[in-house]
Amino acid sequence: MDEKIIRRTLIDVMRRQGISPEQAAQETARGFGIDPSQFSGVLEEIKHEADRNFVLDSPPGVFADGLHAEASTMRWYNGPQEGDRFWPQLRAKLESGSLKSVVDEIENASTKVVAHLGSPYVRNLSKRGLVVGYVQSGKTANYTAVMAKAADAGYRLFIVLSGLHNNLRRQTQVRLTNDLGDEYWHRWTSADADFGGAEPGAPVLVGGVPSLAVVKKNQSRLNSLIDWLDTIPLEIRRRSPILLLDDEADQATPNSAQARDQLTRINQLVRDLWSKIPTGTYIGYTATPFANIFMDPDDEEELYPADFIIDLPRPDAYYGAERVFGREPIDDADEPDSGLDMVREVTDDEAECLRAPSAKTERLLFDPDLPQSLIDAVVWFVVATAIRHARGQEREHSSMLVHTTHYVQPHFAMKARLDDLLNEFRIRSEKSDQSVFLASYQKESARAAEEATLPLPAWNDVEKRLSTVLKSIRVVVDNGYSDDRLDYGRKENGRSVVETVIAVGGGTLSRGLTLEGLVVSFFTRTSNTYDTLLQMGRWFGYRPGYEDLPRIWMQPSLEADYKFLALVEEEIRQDMRHMERMKVTPRQLGVRVRAHPGRLAIVARNKMHHVDAVRISYSGQRLQTFIFYEDNRILTGSNNGALVENLASTRNFLDACRSAGNAVDSRKSARWLFKDVPAAVVTSLIRSYTFHEDQSTVRKEDMLGWIERAAFDRPWNVVVVGSDKKHRDLEGQQIELGEVDLGFDRLVPAVNRAPLKDPKHTTGTANIKALMSHNDWFADLDPDQVRSLGDRAKEDPKGVRRELADGRGLVVIYPVSKDSVPMGAALKTDSRRDMEAAEHLVGLGLVFPNVDREGFAIEGTYYSVHPDWEPSAVDDEEDEIPEDREATMGSSGTGEAESSE
């Protein structure tokens, strides 16, 4: 018998009857009157494929032990199959659109998500999970693919909870209708009508046709949906698997009541909705999962992702917080993006002038002049759009965001000011005065040229398109009181309109809604929480064909906040990957979230009822200094300055090492080794050394506290690394890097570490990116032993130290030349500059001893769920959910209103 026919038959029987592969083989063999052993080859292939889908390498996920057991017994999803209807149709559409380059990524990621859903053929089986993406990274494409595959696999009703605002619900509805197609789907909602519940549900579910409802998180809509589900007999709901997909799952769904024993209305309603689904899966999608992972993991009625958490990979073409703003490395093996030259400054004075007063009567009269930074932003928007047109993108939308306040009335005053400015530019353009645009072109067009995938057009090509661009620009206010909202599907005379738009708004532009072709963002809106600030970053996403053109105008303090949040994002994902390798359940997950050292909170206090400070350990960790003061500023309380004091502290430390340890002088490699130095000597160095204030991953008090509590009896080895190389410039002349007196019988040759170039370079600061090499993990170990381990030394340096270092810590000291210059590849890429330090620098690398003692850790840097947490008093804060203005309206009408933000 043909193997393809056998395979198709077995999978069809598995899907229809909800049985295991082995049971399907027995059933099929009985029908054909043959021995089941004839199916053994195909059976093993099906089981192997199901296992592979469940633990697919990309994306990583954290999942419950029960799901492992289920995979072993059910192996219900084997990926797309021949004869599937919905996924092949969606894939063909994706391959013909703007996402064609990432279709394979979408297929792999969505296959893994579907493999984690509850089997649609096991009655009363329900699962709860979370999918974590990036802001504007294509989460909708992923969950659309998940819906298509789940429909092929047997899910029947799809409920998508789509944010709080009408425009986002409408955008999601249009997108799903377009991508999934009208044929073969029954739709309970449309672009113009939210859920009303007028049509009986039972006949559709019994008929086996997949159906879709896209519903706003609104009290009246959710009540209608719950009442409607109640009218469907329980037995039909048991036989009709339901996928409840919560888009922007961290908004409104988590409980934010002031008291721990109270529930907010939306949280209660989503819980009630989930309770009506006996067979199916609740799956949340978000880019900011902080509130979700802070839910109570022990509350069975809560929507905590108890069964799985999946991390979507970051696509290569995606521009997120790390790529745009850069971030600090988590450790020395980490090589983050350094950021792009796309951020422009809005001064604090300018931002203050645009900050609307809180008193309503004053807001009605608020009409500030446009600051120069906003005028510059508008000018660049015109130029950048003209560049896109010259590149052949005339039929693509082009947008600018202006987000200065969440208050509604000032948006209209801002629109009037911007209209006046554009009219002035149009008049000047008609008089052939393009000087302001030429100046912007010359200043901005090449500043992110390394990102470009298309050539930069000459000024003449750009100039002749400026008039057309200026005529096409509309200024649109997008808020609950505007009659002219953003609508990229707008048509005139039956033809689709290409929008060139400046969007002015607040809350409605802060989450979920995509601004098509976003080129320029002017952003002065502040927030006190991680999730809100990240979601406001509408500039994150894909910029095909204009990767070099986006610009963001904001205050330097906001830029620093986004750089910090890039570090937070990466740490969360690293924790998730680690948890997956350890096969730890989300119920035990306790994902750590780094606390901001200043004003930012992770989420609102009323969403942190179940979290506590995490006790963190430095056991086996490696840290290094790579940011240094170049000027000899007075920071230490001594008249000598930081650089001189660090040299003196190092000499004193090495003197103590000579007294306490056994020194080994290795003259050939310009290295000195001290063995078994007491921990108290090491803490004296850490205590006296001045770390740069921007070296956020190195926290002196935390390190000292951990050593003194957890590793007070562990010895350390100390290695001093000098340069053993002779460097020459391009003309063959020897480069003199100098020597440092560290108290040895000879001077230590300084090493070369040229700082990175930074357009926003702060005078007196040098970022060398990395001080240590990978081999420095083992600087104190027997080289022959390390070499004998082969690839293990490269892949698992922590494990190698755990095995060979016998619990010792390691200090590596590098004297860094004040005369460091770019060499090798840095000369070709022009990525580094000359060091400008007043004195030679001392760099420190620390590899902490491996300590297995429980209870010896430092508190307060990270937060996580903690089941035994005892509540303390919290400050009163307002609910973040907009006022429900539909509460007094009919549940089936389409004339919806929104909050005033």
List the keywords.
901 residues, alpha/beta, Rossmann fold, 3 domains, 8-stranded mixed beta sheet, 6-stranded parallel beta sheet, 36% helix, globular, disordered C terminus
Task: Summarize the structure in words.
It is built from 30 helices and 29 strands. The protein starts with a helix and ends in a 36-residue tail after the last strand. It has 3 domains: 86-311, Rossmann fold; 347-554, no CATH class; 621-848, no CATH class. A hairpin with a 2-residue loop joins strand 12 and strand 13 (495-496). The strands form 7 sheets. The chain has an 8-stranded mixed sheet with strand order 1-8-2-7-6-3-5-4. It has a 6-stranded parallel sheet with strand order 9-16-15-10-14-11. The protein has a 6-stranded mixed sheet with strand order 19-28-27-23-22-21. The longest helix has 27 residues, at 556-582. The protein has 901 residues and is α/β, with parallel strands linked by helices. Residues 890-901 have a biased composition (Low complexity). This is Putative endonuclease Z1 domain-containing protein.
Layout of helices and strands:
Layout: H1 3-17, H2 21-32, H3 40-54, E1 61-63, H4 65-73, H5 86-95, H6 103-116, E2 126-132, H7 139-153, E3 157-162, H8 166-180, E4 186-187, H9 202-207, E5 211-215, H10 219-230, H11 234-239, E6 242-247, H12 265-275, E7 280-286, H13 290-293, E8 308-311, H14 321-325, E9 343-345, H15 348-354, H16 360-364, H17 372-390, E10 398-403, H18 409-430, H19 435-444, H20 459-463, H21 466-472, E11 473-478, E12 491-492, E13 495-496, E14 500-505, E15 518-523, H22 530-535, E16 551-554, H23 556-582, E17 593-594, E18 611-616, E19 622-624, E20 627-629, H24 642-660, E21 662-666, E22 671-677, H25 679-688, H26 700-710, E23 716-721, E24 739-740, E25 748-749, E26 765-767, H27 783-788, H28 792-795, H29 797-804, E27 809-816, H30 825-829, E28 841-847, E29 858-865
Parallel strand pairs: 2-7, 2-8, 3-5, 3-6, 4-5, 6-7, 9-16, 10-14, 10-15, 11-14, 15-16, 23-27
Antiparallel strand pairs: 1-8, 12-13, 17-29, 18-29, 19-28, 20-26, 21-22, 22-23, 24-25, 27-28
Helix pairs in contact: 1-2, 5-7, 6-7, 10-12, 17-19, 17-21, 18-21, 24-25, 25-26
